[in-house]
Amino acid sequence: MEDSLARPPSPAGLSCYVAISQFLGLTVIAMTGAWMGQFRGGIAWESLLEFNVHPLCMIIGMVFLQGDALLVYRVFRNESKRSTKILHGLLHVLALVIALVGLIAVFDYHRKNNFADMYSLHSWCGISAFSLYFIQWLMGFSFFLFPGASFSLRNKYKSHHVFFGIFLLILSIATCLLGIKELLLFSIKTTYSSFVPEGILANVLGLLLITFGLLIGYILTRDEWKRPPLAEELALSMDFKNLTEGESPSGSQ
């Protein structure tokens, strides 16, 4: 009986797609660092280079780590549900912290140089993405990690949580693309059309960001790659439902 309930191995193709997504994500981070280092002078906190902290931190936090947090339930298929939830939540916290550093850097840079804030579409999308991401984390913690939410409430909210998770990754990548375009127009507007190396690198970076998002979305939307519940999780889920909804096991059907 236990053998029949044993977890199957990872579905064919899943590991390959996850590995490619990680390679792409790390390549995007490396290219962003190379862009800031090779063409924008490097990264520092107490100088004019403080701005360069912003794009690097936002891509690490709001794109790479956010995407990895979404993949947790596909990659860790044999670990307990609670452990997977905790890892999922911690990756989101790390992403929020790194993104917050990026936001502080750009606002501080603007303040020191008397630049206007929050006037561009990029900035509006960026602050919206960060704020909604924080709210999404709070809601997820309240419903799925905090013990107060009932079984029916968790079930009702789950589809919304999944939808907004994918939406926020899309919004974050779109905001990064707007930021890349904005930075290029500010820095190399007169030479951008001449296919200068900085412009080419930034364009390739944008394409890789889109590809990373597509891969994450593809992995998340394949029904056969979803994490099936362990046998003990089904039993615990039924016990939790009975406790929070007041249903008897015989009436649960």
TrEMBL record:
Residues 20-221 form the Cytochrome b561 domain. GO terms for cellular component: chromaffin granule membrane; lysosomal membrane. PANTHER family: CYTOCHROME B561-RELATED, TRANSMEMBRANE ASCORBATE-DEPENDENT REDUCTASE CYB561. It is found in: Cytoplasmic vesicle, Secretory vesicle, Chromaffin granule membrane. Keywords: Cytoplasmic vesicle, Electron transport, Heme, Iron, Membrane, Metal-binding, Translocase, Transmembrane, Transmembrane helix, Transport. GO terms for molecular function: metal ion binding; oxidoreductase activity. It is a multi-pass membrane protein. Its cofactor is heme b. It comes from Alligator sinensis (Chinese alligator). This is Transmembrane ascorbate-dependent reductase CYB561. Transmembrane reductase that uses ascorbate as an electron donor in the cytoplasm and transfers electrons across membranes to reduce monodehydro-L-ascorbate radical in the lumen of secretory vesicles. It is therefore involved the regeneration and homeostasis within secretory vesicles of ascorbate which in turn provides reducing equivalents needed to support the activity of intravesicular enzymes. The chain crosses the membrane at residues 12-33, 53-74, 86-107, 127-149, 161-180, 200-220. InterPro entries: CYB561/CYBRD1-like, Cyt_b561/ferric_Rdtase_TM. Its main location: membrane. It catalyses: monodehydro-L-ascorbate radical(out) + L-ascorbate(in) = monodehydro-L-ascorbate radical(in) + L-ascorbate(out).
